[in-house]
């Protein structure tokens, strides 16, 4: 039997196995969520689970195998080029999950920061009404925005397990290592341990976070053109390569069927990635 055909069969079986594992993980997560609905607090806390590390890794692995199969069709009869392409696919499968998870973590942190001021205002109003901090968290659990409400639900779950409120907030700060959350953790621990006007502290933190978010949005609007230039200039060579592949395939195929062509593609990808990062660093303004 043709060795290339055997490789294709093996890759197809591996892809099917990974897809099955991903579906199984999703079904297990859904079953846990259904079981947690029996307790409202547990249900809200379950929404603050860790990032889907396993699902991302399996998805990237499936994508890498699919790309390799497509490349195997283009490189039929070129074992040297196919070996180099296999090494590149393995390297991408190892590196991409870290980048994707870092991006997901940053996006989740940004959404939590946007929800934090409203949640702090609710806590401040409840504490002014005479409630303690745990009582204020429990009373506003249904009113909190979804993501920050899930984090506060985890704080209450920690207290149910026997942790002190200060330790529960420490765990909150470890899950979200961002400056705004650290300030909330410090203010909460000081207010609970040593007394003080916790409601005013929360109100001041809410105003501070809102001002920071407004300033960052203004900076983002001012740097939109530069970020768009980075995206367009970095993706343009790949778009042209795809168009040439559809129009004049005989010109593009040597890039995938020869070692020199693969090295050229790798060098182009590396330079475009470097250019994208460079432009983003130029237009990025740290607050």
Element layout with pairings:
Elements lengths: L2 H34 L3 H7 L6 H22 L4 H50 L4 H7 L6 H15 L4 H11 L3 H16 L3 H25 L1 H24 L1 H9 L1 H25 L4
Structure characteristics:
12 helices; elongated; Receptor-associated Protein; 287 residues; mainly alpha
Question: What features would you describe in this structure?
Answer:
The protein is elongated. Among the domains are: 111-217, Receptor-associated Protein, CATH 1.20.81; 223-287, no CATH class. It is built from 12 helices and no strands. By secondary structure, the protein is mainly alpha-helical. The model has no long low-confidence stretch (mean pLDDT 79). It has helices at residues 3-36, 40-46, 53-74, 79-128, 133-139, 146-160, 165-175, 179-194, 198-222, 224-247, 249-257, 259-283. The protein is 85% helix and 0% strand.
Summarize the structure.
This protein is mainly alpha-helical.
Helix/strand-derived category reads mainly alpha
CATH class of the domain at 111-217: Mainly Alpha
Assigned CATH architecture of the domain at 111-217: Up-down Bundle
CATH topology of the domain at 111-217: Receptor-associated Protein
